[in-house]
From TrEMBL:
Membrane spanning stretches: 21-41, 47-65, 86-109, 129-153, 165-183, 189-210
Gene Ontology terms for molecular function: endopeptidase activity
Lineage: Bacteria, Pseudomonadati, Pseudomonadota, Alphaproteobacteria, Hyphomicrobiales
Domain of life (superkingdom): Bacteria
A biological process term (GO) from this entry: CAAX-box protein maturation
Record has Membrane as a keyword: yes
Keywords: Membrane, Transmembrane, Transmembrane helix
Protein name, per record: CAAX prenyl protease 2/Lysostaphin resistance protein A-like domain-containing protein
Residue ranges of domain CAAX prenyl protease 2/Lysostaphin resistance protein A-like in the record: 126-226
Length: 244
C-alpha cells in the first residue's frame, strides 16, 4: 500500500517554494482580500469581478512560483470525497451553530447584513448571489490554506520544528487570519469572529487536512454558507397573515 499523500509544498513536494515565493503568495492573498472588500462594483456582471480576482489571484501566483504547475492543493474529486465534503459541511453547520448560540447568549452577536438582506431578494437576485458566492467561497478556502502551508514551511524548514508542532501553529495562524478577514462583516466583533467564524474555520481546515483536497473543504464551506443564505431567503418569503 502507498503511504497517504502528504501536505504539499512545505517539504519540497511536488515542488519547492522558497521564501521569496511564499512572500509573493502571501502578498497575493492580502491584495486579493482588500480588493474584494474595497471593490466598488455593484452591478451585473461587474459584481463577479472581485470574487473571481479573490479566488484567481492567489492561485495564479501559486502557479507562477511553482513553474506554472497546477495547484497541488487541489486533487481529483470523486464521489467519496464529494460525500466527505457534504459531511464536513453539515458538521460545520452544527458546530458553528452551537458556537453561535453560545456567543450570542453570553456576549452578543452582530448580524451579517448581506445574509439578512437575502430575505428581500427575488429568485433571480438569489441565483446571482449564490453564483458569486460559489466562486468567493472557493477563494476563501484558497486564502486560508495557502497561509497555513506557508507557516508550516516556515516552522519546519526555517525554525526546525517538527511537522506536528508546525502544523498546530499553522492551523492557529490560519484560523486567526480567517477570523480577522470577517471582522468588517460583523462590525468588528472580535469575540464573534473568533468564537463562531474561528470554530467554523477549524472544521473546514480539518476537511482539507483529512483529504489534502481543497475541493472537499470548498464543498463543506459552500454547504455551510449556503445553508445560512437559503434559510434567510426562505424565512423572508414565508407566507404571513394567512388565516388558519
Amino acid at each position: 500500500m502507498s503511504a497517504k499523500i502528504d501536505l504539499p509544498y512545505y517539504a519540497g513536494v511536488p515542488v519547492a517554494i522558497d521564501g521569496r515565493g511564499w512572500l509573493l503568495v502571501i502578498a497575493s492573498v492580502i491584495v486579493a482580500f482588500f480588493q474584494l472588500i474595497l471593490a466598488p462594483f455593484d452591478t451585473v456582471p461587474l459584481i463577479f469581478v472581485p470574487a473571481v480576482v479573490f479566488m484567481g489571484l492567489p492561485l495564479l501566483t501559486l502557479m507562477a512560483v511553482t513553474g506554472w504547475r497546477p495547484p497541488a492543493i487541489f486533487r481529483p474529486l470523486d464521489l467519496k470525497q464529494f460525500g466527505i465534503g457534504i459531511g464536513f459541511g453539515v458538521l460545520t453547520v452544527i458546530v458553528s451553530g452551537i458556537a453561535g448560540f453560545a456567543v450570542a447568549t453570553l456576549y452578543g452577536a452582530s448580524p451579517n447584513a448581506a445574509v439578512a438582506g437575502l430575505a428581500s431578494y427575488g429568485p433571480v437576485d438569489l441565483l446571482l448571489f449564490l453564483a458569486r458566492t460559489f466562486v468567493q467561497l472557493i477563494g476563501e478556502e484558497a486564502v486560508s490554506i495557502l497561509p497555513l502551508l506557508a507557516v508550516l514551511w516556515l516552522c519546519v524548514s526555517k525554525f526546525g520544528l517538527s511537522r506536528r508542532a508546525g502544523l498546530v501553529i499553522a492551523v492557529v495562524v490560519s484560523t486567526l487570519w480567517f477570523s480577522a478577514m470577517h471582522l468588517p462583516t460583523y462590525d468588528w466583533n472580535v469575540v464573534q469572529c473568533l468564537g463562531i467564524i474561528g470554530t467554523a474555520r477549524i472544521i473546514l481546515t480539518l476537511a482539507y487536512l483529512a483529504t489534502r483536497n481543497l475541493w472537499v473543504s470548498s464543498i463543506a464551506h459552500i454547504v455551510n454558507d449556503w445553508t445560512l443564505f437559503l434559510t434567510s431567503f426562505a424565512l423572508g418569503h414565508l407566507p404571513v397573515g394567512v388565516e388558519g
